[in-house]
């Protein structure tokens, strides 16, 4: 659980119980769907999808029935519909580093991070134009067009992981156990602050951090 200092006053309802499993951080196209976490633990697969393009990284998102992921060896975001088995949109993220140019501290081609919160869909990445520092863009979930962008002064390579709560990006200072939530950037005010909040991590390291549900303060680690 995240320290109660970080809370959300926004409300967002999401009732999905499925689990989607992508078994590598690069060069793969197979996604396995499980009806719930019990089936996932038991290995009972309900459906298997073969994506049209391979992915890169671990920071993908399932949102309103579609998978949003970083296309292999590119800065292109792909929107894939589980229902139709087709690509609904794909778009290059201008100037975004990819293929371990600006990953999180653990590497793993984690340059481009797609996430969502109560306010919509976001992409976190870095560019040469912003000196390798974290860039936040809000994107349209239908067209993948960038709606607005914020340039921060926090080095992407020094970020362990990040997650959004109500339009604020929180960044950990490491991917290892003992990490802390160290930096927060508000897209509402375009301001930042350095913070010092213990980030409970029962694993050796994390490669993906997300809210359990938008509107909650619990963060899922993978």
TrEMBL record:
Domain Olfactomedin-like: from-to ranges: 1-222
Subcellular location: Secreted
InterPro entries from the UniProt entry: Olfac-like_dom, Olfactomedin-like_domain
Keywords: Secreted
Classification via PROSITE patterns: OLF
GO CC aspect terms: extracellular space
Biological processes, Gene Ontology terms: signal transduction
Principal subcellular localisation of the protein: secreted
Protein name per its UniProtKB record: Olfactomedin-like domain-containing protein
């Amino acid at each position: 659980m995240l320290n109660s200092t970080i809370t959300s006053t926004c409300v967002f309802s999401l009732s999905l119980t499925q689990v989607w499993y992508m078994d590598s951080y690069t060069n793969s196209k197979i996604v396995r769907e499980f009806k719930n976490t019990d089936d996932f633990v038991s290995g009972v697969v309900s459906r298997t999808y073969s994506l049209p393009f391979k992915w890169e990284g671990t920071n993908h998102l399932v949102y309103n029935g579609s998978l949003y992921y970083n296309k292999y060896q590119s800065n292109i975001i792909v929107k894939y519909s589980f229902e139709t088995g087709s690509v609904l949109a794909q778009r290059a993220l201008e100037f975004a580093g990819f293929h371990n140019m600006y990953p999180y501290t653990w590497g793993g081609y984690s340059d481009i991070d797609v996430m969502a919160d109560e306010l919509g869909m976001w992409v976190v990445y870095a560019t040469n134009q912003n000196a390798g520092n974290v860039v936040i863009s809000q994107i349209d979930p239908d067209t993948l067009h960038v709606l607005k962008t914020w340039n921060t002064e926090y080095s992407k390579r020094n970020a362990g992981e990040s997650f959004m709560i109500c339009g604020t990006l929180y960044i950990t200072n490491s991917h290892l156990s003992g990490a802390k939530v160290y930096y927060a950037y508000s897209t509402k005010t375009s301001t930042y602050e350095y913070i010092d909040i213990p980030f409970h991590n029962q694993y050796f390291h994390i490669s993906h951090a997300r809210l359990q549900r938008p509107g909650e303060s619990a963060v899922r680690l993978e």
